[in-house]
Amino acid sequence: MYLNTKHKASVFSTLFSDPEILRELYSAIEGVDVPKDAVISINTLSDVLFMGQLNDVSFTINDQLVVLIEHQSTINNNIPIRMLMYIGRVYEKIIERERLYQKKLVKIPAPEFIVLYNGVDQFPDYKKLILSDAFMNIKGLESIESLELAAHVYNINHGRNPQMLEKSKNLDDYSIFIAKIREYRKELSLEESVKAAIKYCIGNEVLKEFFKEHSSEVINMLTEEPSMDEIIEIRLQEALEEIREESLEEGLEQGLERGREEGREEGFVTGREKTARNLIGMGMSINDIARATELPIERVRYLASGTS
Fold first, then answer.
1. Which residues contact 226 (CB under 8 A, 6 or more apart)?
2. Largest separation between any pair of C-alpha atoms in the chain
3. Mind listing the pLDDT tens digit for each residue in 180-219?
């Protein structure tokens, strides 16, 4: 059975979609006590192209601080770039556009970027990833520090960062749940492991009420076969990796993105053909287009001929 690693983040997002749970979580991560009267407003981004969700969790505290939290089961050094994109969308959502053209300075909530990692690869308890590490060095030009973003990554695997997990029962329980799935997975199928982990948690007061309400949903999130949209996403991502490895021009990625968006509207095969047309227009070779879109090379030649 297919393990949908993207859906694991959805379990996290479902669990941490309650303001009071977020109050507990943020207090534990930062080692502070968020006052009970502080207003927690959830503004997690929504986008159909990202399985109903663009980021895992985002919220404001008293409209003065905006916090973005990402759950990661794989190590991703590009998270600061993604966070930069997310925060722009969040600010678009919470700031009236007209105010930006006024003479008076618009005050905005200060941003904070947090990543919670619980993958199987070795990772320290804490690591700071900064956006400027991704900046290219421009020879002969003096670098001007004009933009920076720091993502604070915490390892939440069971047994790691114990002081943090002790302060947030929900986070600790979540780490136990994932650990139990991995333990049972040594002998059971994925679906059986998830069910066994849920049964263990309910019997041991670990996210008991959450699993009583969401157990079927959690099983589907972690074990369901990929939808057609996800298959499109997966195949195009794999094709993109091949293209990057061959050092093709950066503009080709934009062509794939446009094709992906259009393809979701008209179906899997039509979407691949639209992607192929985009890449043809950008000068990509017939062979590379066929490999990237998984279309027969004869079909790509036909599309390139302009007779389709």
1. 2, 4, 234
2. 66
3. 999 999 999 989 999 999 999 999 999 999 999 999 889 9
